[in-house]
Amino acid sequence: MPRFIIVLLVVLSLCTTAFSQTKGKVEFGINAGYNAATVTAGENTNSKYRSGFNAGVSADYYFSDRWSIKGKLNYDQKGWNNGFVQMDNTTYTTDFHLDYLTIPVMANWHFGRTRNWYLNFGPYAGILLSASETAGDMDLKKGFSSVDLGLDLGIGVKIPVSEKTRFFIELNGQGGFTDLIKNNQGETIRSSTSNVNIGFNF
């Protein structure tokens, strides 16, 4: 799948045309996509990916035709599968569902002949909306940290579809710095998410 997406990005980039990106311009966007989320927790983790959904809005301020800063506000389904939870002195295998309101703030470097390719990088903060597990259908929000902090990296390409509208496809990866578990006494559990997004800029 990642190889297919990369090939698609290259093909789409061949269809791009010049589009105005001038100092002081603000570009708004809407986006939706697929999340593949898991966690890192040392060498002994057996966690697997949880498939999820994301959707949000963005604003991109241009300092020049090459540099801009973008802020996003996304609903993100994260978590992980094949985790463990203890109930009634028994340990069960379960899937953890963590939903966040994620706020990345990223620097964008625009490149290519028409400046329609871009790399983005910057910090994000995820505000926990809900936390549950599937084996016992328990609400676990009180046991998880209310904020997840980390780094967001990505690459994308924008395709002009009209004078003021561009379609985009973007690949992103997020790595958490903070422990997801509140007052955790064991291995530090950090989030790790890859996503594929599509959307429109105006």
Measured as a percent range, the helix fraction is: under 10%
State the low-pLDDT regions, or none: none
Query: What does the radius of gyration come to?
Result: 19 Å
State the secondary-structure class: mainly beta
Biggest beta sheet attributes: 8 strands, antiparallel, barrel
Q: What is the highest CATH level, the class?
A: Mainly Beta
Count of separate structural domains: 1
Characterise this structure.
This protein has 202 residues and is mainly β. It has a single domain (2-15, 24-201), classed as Porin. The protein has one helix and eight strands, in the order αββββββββ. The chain has one helix at residues 2-13, and strands at 26-40, 50-62, 67-87, 90-111, 117-133, 147-160, 166-176, 190-201. It has an eight-stranded antiparallel β-barrel with strand order 1-2-3-4-5-6-7-8. The radius of gyration is 19 Å and the shape is elongated. The two termini are 29 Å apart. The model has no long low-confidence stretch (mean pLDDT 90).
List the helices and strands and how they pair.
Blueprint: H1 2-13, E1 26-40, E2 50-62, E3 67-87, E4 90-111, E5 117-133, E6 147-160, E7 166-176, E8 190-201
Antiparallel strand pairs: 1-2, 1-8, 2-3, 3-4, 4-5, 5-6, 6-7, 7-8
Summarize it.
The chain has one helix spanning 2-13; strands spanning 26-40, 50-62, 67-87, 90-111, 117-133, 147-160, 166-176, 190-201. The chain has 202 residues and is mainly beta. It comes from Pararcticibacter amylolyticus.
Keywords:
202 residues, 1 helix, Porin, OMP/PagP_B-barrel, mainly beta, elongated
